[in-house]
Automatic annotation (TrEMBL):
InterPro entries per the UniProt record, alphabetical: Peptidase_M18, Peptidase_M18_dom2
Keywords, in A-Z order: Aminopeptidase, Hydrolase, Metal-binding, Metalloprotease, Protease, Zinc
Protein name as annotated: M18 family aminopeptidase
The keyword Protease is annotated on this UniProt entry: yes
Cofactors named for this entry: Zn(2+)
Length: 428
């Protein structure tokens, strides 16, 4: 697949995936179209060699599995995460401030708050409701169009804003949605959601019970630069890796057993029933191979590539990088290394990945955080500790991680997909 097609595909995937629920729904539809069979966790499974399967937990995490000819040779795995830092709507969110309708929000994950101001925002997520028959149901909702924004305070009212700006997440960021008739007017947010669901074809809503909603930027991803070398968009961390993993899985040849896992809640520590620190992958493997001895042998022959974006060296802040480990955009995927196991890479798994890159003539880079700075982490060490699988942490070099709009290199996506596809095809 050529670079333009891959980038257009990533842009479409990001645009259709404003929340983890939408990302998993998009991936599941793609898997079904490619012949993958949905598994229900509450039913008995009968998995067979040659089969293609996927399972979803909480609507926001997904495992896709291709059952190879000889499971005992191990399972080649790729892991990523579906969530991104964002602003999530509070349970009782409606605020009338000076006659303007605002919604109270919580900060989800390590959000870079400043870029959220003066953006065209929409709202999406999952709504749980009571049907007209009195049954509980749920549906995805996406307002799609810009319905909100967070206006900046004029510099005339804060002359020091460019010298020492601070943002209070409680008082400074509630988005504005509308102008109300007066300072005492209210708004029925449940009815607003019911009306939007009806507009999207869900017409059996009697009342809204609850919701999980987040704001997002409506601006579509774009290719920028004089030579089209930059890809800019929301949620590259980590939808770019989900997309790369899915494309690699679907393109990988038959033979080797292959597994893609995309977990929710990485940005807040992964501790949930569907996060990497939860039992989702372990329980899948237990149902796949009930015999403990055989399962442990298979895991021993398996290898996980944990794909999550890496910090590319910023030309305006080069001193924030370790001198010999500043990854450049468009110079290949990055192997992430940390002596304190914030990344799961070992010398052996790094050598394996470098060898794949050599075979495909793909450039590869390395990242180590400055010794005097704290290091982030990924699902890699968590998953490795949970199931005991050998793991390497890699990612696309990126600028502006956790901003509302992040930047990657247009060449790097193709590099990563090629490497993951080869990883899926070969035993470790």
């Amino acid at each position: 697949m050529d670079q333009t097609t891959l980038l257009n595909g990533l842009a479409d995937f990001i645009a259709s995936s404003p929340t983890p629920f939408h990302a998993v729904d998009t991936m599941a539809r793609r898997l079904r179209a490619e012949g993958y069979q949905a598994l229900a966790e509450g039913e008995r499974w009968q998995l067979q060699a040659g089969g293609r399967y996927y399972v979803v937990r909480n609507g926001a995490s997904l495992i896709a599995f291709k059952y190879g000819k000889d499971l005992d040779k191990g399972i080649q795995m790729v892991g990523a995460h579906t969530d991104s830092p964002c602003l999530k709507v509070k349970p009782n969110p409606v605020v009338n401030s000076q006659g303007y309708l605002q919604l109270g929000v919580e900060v989800y994950g390590g959000v870079l708050l400043a870029p959220w101001f003066d953006r065209d925002l929409s709202l999406a997520g999952r709504v749980s409701y009571l049907t007209k028959k009195g049954e509980r149901a749920k549906a995805l909702v996406n307002f799609s169009r810009a319905i909100a924004f967070i206006p900046s305070l004029a510099i005339h009212l804060d002359r020091e804003v460019n010298k020492n700006r601070t943002i209070n997440p409680q008082t400074d960021i509630p988005p504005v949605l509308a102008q109300l008739p007066g300072p005492d007017a209210g708004a029925d947010f449940g009815q607003i959601l019911a009306d939007q669901l009806a507009a999207e074809g869900v017409t059996d809503v009697a009342s809204v019970l609850d919701y999980e909603l987040c704001f997002y930027d409506t601006q579509r991803p774009a290719v920028l630069g004089l030579n089209n070398e930059f890809f800019v968009g929301a949620r590259l961390d980590n939808l770019a890796s989900c997309y790369a993993g899915l494309e690699a899985l679907l393109a990988a040849p038959e033979g080797q057993s292959q597994l893609l896992i995309c977990n929710d809640h990485e940005e807040v520590g992964s501790s949930s029933c569907c996060g990497a620190a939860g039992p989702m992958l372990r329980q899948f493997l237990e149902r796949l191979v009930p015999d403990v001895e055989r399962r442990n042998q298979i895991i021993h022959h398996s290898l996980l590539v944990s794909a999550d974006n890496a910090h590319g060296i910023h030309p305006n802040y080069a001193d924030k990088h370790e001198q010999n480990h500043g990854p450049l955009l468009n110079k290949g995927p990055v192997i992430k290394i940390n002596a304190n196991q914030r990344y799961a890479t070992t010398g052996e798994t790094s050598a394996y990945f470098r060898h794949l890159c050599q075979q495909l003539n793909v450039p590869v880079q390395a990242f180590v955080v400055r010794t005097d700075m704290a290091c982030g982490s990924t699902i890699g060490p968590i998953t490795s500790a949970e199931i005991g699988v050998s793991t390497i942490d890699v990612g696309l070099p990126t600028w502006g991680m956790h901003s509302i709009r992040e930047t990657a290199g247009t060449a790097d996506l193709g590099y990563l997909i090629a490497i993951l596809q080869k990883h899926f095809a070969e035993p470790a």
